[in-house]
What we know:
The chain is an alpha+beta fold. Helices cover 43% and strands 14% of the residues.
Amino acid sequence: xxxxxxxxxxxxxxxxxxxxxxxxxxxxxxxxxxxxxxxxxxxxxxxxxxxxxxxxxxxxxxxxxxxxxxxxxxxxxxxxxxxxxxxxxxxxxxxxxxxxxxxxxxxxxxxxxxxxxxxxxxxxxxxxxxxxxxxxxxxxxxxxxxxxxxxxxxxxxxxxxxxxxxxxxxxxxxxxxxxxxxxxxxxxxxxxxxxxxxxxxxxxxxxxxxxxxxxxxxxxxxxxxxxxxxxxxxxxxxxxxxxxxxxxxxxxxxxxxxxxxxxxxxxxxxxxxxxxxxxxxxxxxxxxxxxxxxx
Length: 295
């Protein structure tokens, strides 16, 4: 990450303070998870670090901040070397801005499926006087809820930090556990959808080349655009016409017989290909209902 990006996110004064804190505060030595190799592989599989996913994950951080009453909340992913925030509340984040994992509180939350709750960091010898307890973060309480997968891997944390000592009650802990599970489910769903999409596109391209032997992935995407919207980029329309998938008998482009057969072969008939639809969420009766919908 460039210094310019860091200064833009933190501001010049806080950038200097953060640099001083990291330079003068020894990193806390955290234990390494027993399944660290698998954990790193699972994090890499998500392909989530460095992506701008605030639109998807900011809501989880917002809800965590609301539940805990903390100053800041984050969804943090740790890859074994660096920590990246993919969603936050109460602070600015940049998906390209990473923090060395060795300086983080969250590294301690990787070794157990249970939350790491430290109501007073100044009273814990592992963290007192470390970088994030100093300005500009000035954390005095930390609560990290692991993002646990079914196979015992912790991808990162849904965490909150507060600038004064803060303890959570049983109900807050219950809600945060539930929210952390919903966050993990969203991360895993993205990974599954990416794999499914890649597999489906490969299968569709195979069928597409039966009709257009010289067809490319770009032409396939153009055909999907045409089926959804009735048009595509001009050069793609020319490729589709060259392959006798569309034709222009008058002033309008239409599918040829081969084009209609291809549309059916790819499962794009009206009953199954309806494009993206946005529906209004059902009205919930409280925070539990919203968490259940997210999970």
